[in-house]
Design goal:
There is one protein chain. This protein is an alpha/beta fold. The chain has 15 helices and 13 strands. It has helices spanning 3-10, 38-41, 45-51, 70-77, 89-96, 131-140, 197-214, 237-241, 252-260, 272-281, 295-301, 305-317, 319-323, 369-373, 385-392, and strands at residues 18-23, 54-60, 105-115, 121-123, 150-157, 160-166, 222-229, 245-248, 264-265, 288-293, 329-333, 350-356, 378-381. β5 (150-157) and β6 (160-166) form a beta hairpin. α5 crosses α9 (252-260) and α11 runs antiparallel to α12. The longest helix has 18 residues, at 197-214. The radius of gyration is 21 Å and the shape is globular.
């Protein structure tokens, strides 16, 4: 019996509410051997106060030693084994902007990037070009023509856009063209199986024509292609957990992931304070709220240690607005670690806190990596976080006689 079957059988419906606050890329590392992590450096009085009524630990997004993408990281938090349910980033982005993927579609998440005169990458995100500048460039790429293939190009946010290829004989298993580093050329789209060979050929032609359309640009003069994927099928939150679930996110990819697991995406927030207002507005309509905060990840990827500290403090400042609603269970965690030291997602377990009236106290006094190492939750796989949340909310019955 898998965990989802077990949660279905033990489900108890009640009026108790669960809030999951996810600071993307929350975990970090000290910048030197004598220092503290970003989370430990930040002033987080509200999170530290919550620790006194909760239980802490470190969650492992996928498996020990594995550095996850945002998709697998969030699937684990939602209780979906990321090794069993693998969703490509293209499908997440497309769904997040409201694009309905059909059976003959392959979605691709693309990043504008900057190439030098030798065709080598100098900036993988084109300086995080503003949406006002990037959107017209994405629209320009609609001029690409591919015989026998219908092409959709949709702007997303900042340096991101989505390409959807529609046609017969397309598979979604193609390697990314982003080498994940600078100083080297973009990679070719390589099919990982015979069923995806045509997709790789079509993507290569799209990239060739697209580069010609962008050659006059100083920053966004090329693009990488990532997360080739077809539309996935996952059991819904209500089916698995008996929860009416809502997602409050700013970035489309996280809205897309929430939709794919059956959450309602509510509101159209642009800031954390707007997310808090949307939470209050929809409080009576849902049992579970997923609230996503992106900027702890982006500052980590930029190697901006002080910037990540400030974003963690911003995240902390919103906590009283959540607590004023008196949730039965509140979870604070991240989908993965993004240490500023590494400027990338990492394998390090993520600080995690569960607070409810039924928590077993531990000896943690502040919310940081060093305290969480010795917390009562221990080291655990993130896919078990939802059963823990249900249990603390009185939504799990007894197993066996």
């Amino acid at each position: 019996m898998d965990m989802h079957q077990l949660t279905r059988e033990l489900n108890v419906r009640n009026e108790n509410k669960v809030v999951m606050l996810v600071a993307d890329g929350l975990g970090g590392l000290p910048m030197d051997s004598q220092g503290q992590t970003e989370l430990e450096t930040a002033k987080t009085p509200h999170l530290d106060a919550l620790v006194s009524r909760g239980t802490c630990g470190l969650s492992i997004p996928v498996k020990p030693g594995i550095s996850p993408g945002s998709g697998p990281g969030h699937l684990g938090l939602f209780g979906y084994d990321p090794l069993q349910y693998l969703i490509g980033r293209g499908a997440l982005e497309a769904t997040g902007i409201g694009f309905h993927l059909g059976p003959n579609d392959v979605a691709i998440r693309c990043n504008f990037c900057t190439l030098d005169g030798e065709g080598k990458i100098t900036d993988r995100r084109a300086g995080r070009i503003a949406t006002e500048q990037s959107a017209p460039l994405a629209v320009r790429l609609r001029e690409v023509s591919l015989p026998g293939i219908e092409v959709f190009v949709e702007p997303v946010k900042e340096h991101r856009f989505v390409v959807v290829l529609r046609g017969d004989g397309l598979g979604g298993d193609v390697a990314d063209t982003d080498p994940q580093t600078t100083g080297v050329p973009l990679l070719d789209p390589i099919p990982q199986n015979d069923a995806s060979r045509r997709t790789a050929e079509v993507a290569a032609e799209f990239a060739r024509q697209g580069a010609a359309l962008l050659k006059d640009q100083s920053a966004a003069n090329a693009f990488s292609m990532r997360g080739f994927s077809e539309s996935p099928s996952l059991p819904s939150f209500d089916e698995v957990y008996g929860l009416r679930a809502a997602a409050i996110a700013v970035y489309p990819m996280y809205k897309g992931l929430a939709k794919l697991v059956g959450m309602d995406v509510v509101g159209d927030a642009k800031t954390l304070n707007q997310q808090m207002e949307i939470l209050k507005t929809h409080w009576d309509k849902y049992d579970f709220f997923f609230i996503h905060f992106k900027y702890t990840d982006s500052t980590g990827e930029d190697g901006d240690f002080p910037g990540k500290v400030k974003r963690i403090e911003e995240f902390d400042s919103a906590l009283p607005q959540v607590m004023a609603l008196d949730p039965t269970v509140i979870i604070v965690t991240g989908d993965h670690s993004t240490p500023s030291l590494l400027k990338a997602h990492s394998w390090h377990p993520v600080p995690t806190l569960i607070a409810s009236a039924e928590c077993r106290p531990d000896r943690c006094t502040s919310f940081g990596e060093a305290d969480c190492i010795s917390g009562g939750l221990g080291h655990f796989e993130a896919k078990y976080l939802m059963p823990l949340a249900l249990a603390h909310a009185g939504r799990m019955g007894k197993y066996g006689a």
